[in-house]
Write a structure and sequence with these properties.
This protein is an alpha+beta fold. The chain contains five helices and six strands, in the order E-E-H-E-E-H-E-E-H-H-H.
């Protein structure tokens, strides 16, 4: 069983993703309630059968520190859907500074994009406007909820309303 379950805080804000087994234990021990079950899937014991959770809500509010998304190479690739932001290819990807580092461009969500090696070399030490290479999408800092969607494993439609907040 490798399905994942979305865990909501008491106020229905997304908190984390956990295993089905962990979610079932939380529900069984009355530490959480099942908000959505996985369509038709069941957890079976020798004598009983229970609906498999897809979304659960904790019964107590957990004061979680700010959940942000770390600025990493892999997270930038995920944000940009593993596509070059200049030509759209999915091959030979690397990172590109929109405003080059040599011109004071920082290492931030709004200045880093996914680029293929060819476009990165073509752009060189220029801005996209100077190189006449417009960006397909403006870089932005993604929300924590956006990254929780990566763990959906086919439950996207069941989680959607909770991750849209």
């Amino acid at each position: 069983m490798n399905n994942r379950v979305l865990v909501l805080n008491q106020d229905f804000s997304p908190l984390m993703v956990c295993s089905v087994e962990r979610a079932f234990v939380l529900v069984f021990l009355n530490k959480s309630e099942m908000v959505r079950s996985a369509n038709g899937h069941k957890l079976r014991t020798v004598s009983s059968s229970y609906p498999m959770p897809s979304v659960i809500r904790l019964n107590r509010y957990v004061n979680a520190p700010y959940k942000g998304v770390n600025l990493t190479r892999q997270n930038i690739f995920k944000r940009d859907n593993f596509e070059c932001q200049y030509c759209g290819t999915r091959r030979d990807l690397t990172l590109d500074h929109v405003v080059p580092s040599s011109r004071g461009g920082g290492h931030s969500w709004s200045n880093l994009v996914t680029a293929c090696k060819r476009c990165n070399a073509k752009k060189g030490d220029c801005t996209p406007e100077e190189a006449n290479m417009p960006l397909r999408h403006k870089p932005y800092k993604p929300s924590y909820a956006l990254f929780l969607k990566d763990h959906a494993n086919g439950h996207t439609h069941e989680w959607e309303e909770f991750l849209a907040k």
